[in-house]
Design a protein that fits this description.
about 240 residues, alpha/beta, Rossmann fold, OB fold (Dihydrolipoamide Acetyltransferase, E2P), 2 domains, 5-stranded antiparallel sheet, 7 helices, 15 strands, about 35% helix, about 30% strand, elongated
Amino acid sequence: MKIAIIDDLRTECELLSEYIHRYCADHQLDAEITLFESGSHFLERFAPHTYDLIFLDIYMDGLNGIETAERIREKDSDCLLIFSTTSQFHAVKGFRVRAFDYLVKPYNYEVFEETMRYCDETLFKQSRYIEVKEGRTHVKIFLKDIVYTDYSNHYIYIHTKRRIVKCYMPFADFSALLLPYPQFVNCYRNCIVNMDEVDVLDEKDFVMLTGERVPINRGLRTEIRQRYANYEFDKLNRRS
């Protein structure tokens, strides 16, 4: 696990590092931790998909933590962001940049451990993948990269964050790969959506974070809306 800590107070960086090392020792995990004294210092060296987890203070000289997080999200939508700061005032702004959690200083190790446990579960889920055959090549696709899938003329079209993967297989066989995972729902005939990638659920469609719209079967709209609401509620409960 690669972790960045962005905080202009050295003592806070060291305490958080100590918590991380303790958690990793208790749970048999490996972690590589890098410290940054400012948002600007971090962004000068930042490359997308470098870090699994980033801790940010909000009150820093120069770029504050919210501004730094906004710049991170312009390049990387996958890393987990956790604010570690002295005030609850910016919590709503934090979740607007899809913060995973918001820790208010001073917090004890037990509070930190609970957050890290949910991080572990999320990162484990993100590391899962399916394997399909594209032409003559076997391709591994991480579940977290799938936005939605559809089906036409015996081909599955897997819309990922980077490209569309086309594979020849029956929809029943393909759906058996995805539907056991709670974030996936079959919302229309031969169409599956990753609910983690939904921006808005409107009257007739899922509107994805990519801006694409995926229709919902008219006869299933009530059921799908409830399924999505339950999934979002469960996610919030895991973070609280």
